[in-house]
Amino acid sequence: MAYDSAITVFSPDGHLFQVEYAMEAVRKGTLAVGVRGSDIVVLGVERKAVPKLQDSRTLRKIQLLDDHIAIAFAGLTADARILINRARTECQSHRLTLEDEASVEHITRYIGGVQQKYTQSGGVRPFGLSTLITGFSPEGKPQLFHTDPSGTYSQWKANATGRNSKSVREWLEKHYEDFSGDEAIKFTLKALLEVVEPGSKNIEIAVMRSPKSGLEILSAETVDAMVKQIEEEKEKADAEKKAKAKAAAEAAAAAATI
Fold first, then answer.
1. Which of 36, 97, 227, 230 is 20 to 30 A from 237 via CA?
2. pTM score, whole prediction
3. What share of the chain is helix, strand, coil (3-state, %, to 5)?
């Protein structure tokens, strides 16, 4: 059927299948998590295994768009490169035209507009990626936005996209608080560790602490230390839980013998 292959044709039940196929490409991509704290924004991504002879710096899932805006993505890396370059050009064009830096929302709206345009034109296909865009507003407040292949964008406190994003998003909804500083970083790591193997080989974390601080990629040693701390806290909590359950069972058994 034409609606199964043509981007501009709706199916009888109102679907654009090529857009839905692009979303499936996102769901098969590596996980990306974004968290907006009270004074910080954090991006965390799952890292793919890199061949021994390949330079890992050429495969970055977290990129800067401007001095105060960063982006992480899930989906097709080649599509992301094109979209990121267009967003960077828009950032510089905004500076040149208005003599002021573009806001995070403006760039998100621009990226969403580009993605949407590729769902409404013949002879093209949708971008096979979803993005998490973070930065600081002109008032200095941290912000987090999400876009998908349909061009829809929205603002979030915390979100995940890519592989197993649904279960990670449910975990974020259950445990989210308005964290600050290192607590927000630790919270992002915990979300990633729900589905990703622990260790700096599998996880990359980037933080932005203020509009002028730029993007800081945490070192492998820092990530490993935080992962170890999280695992120790988890083991301690599990031990306490088992001890309480054992004490409750012993109390119940003692009460039954009386």
1. 36
2. 0.90
3. 45, 20, 35
Q: What confidence score (pLDDT) does residue 73 get?
A: 97
Q: Are 195 and 155 in contact (CB under 8 A)?
A: no
Confidence of residue 51 (pLDDT cuts 50, 70, 90): confident
Residue 72 one-letter amino acid: A
Sign of torsion over alpha carbons 149, 48, 225, 213: negative
pLDDT, residue 58, reads 79
Q: Identify whether the C-beta of residue 115 lies closer than 8 Å to the C-beta of residue 127.
A: yes
Average the pLDDT over each of 3-7, 134-138, 184-188 and give the range with the smallest value. Answer: 3-7
**CA angle at 32 for the pair 216 and 55, rounded to the nearest 5°:** 60
The answer to whether residues 127 and 21 touch, using CB atoms and an 8 Å cutoff, is no
Largest CA distance in the chain: 84
Residue type at position 53 = L
Are the C-beta atoms of 172 and 159 separated by less than 8 Å?
Answer: yes
Q: How many residues does the chain have?
A: 258
Instruction: List the one residue out of 56, 28, 61, 21 whose CA is nearest residue 44.
Output: 61
Distance CA 109, CA 251 (A): 60
Cβ neighbours for 155, distance < 8 A, ≥ 6 positions apart: 105, 143, 144, 145, 146
As a whole number of angstroms, the distance between CA 138 and CA 45 comes to 26
Give the pLDDT band (50/70/90) at residue 130: very high
CA dist., res. 95 & res. 60, Å (int):
25
Q: Nearest Cα to 156, choosing from 174, 129, 176?
A: 176
The span from the first CA to the last CA of the chain, in angstroms, equals 75
Tokens 């109390």 -> residue: 251
The average pLDDT across 51-64 equals 86
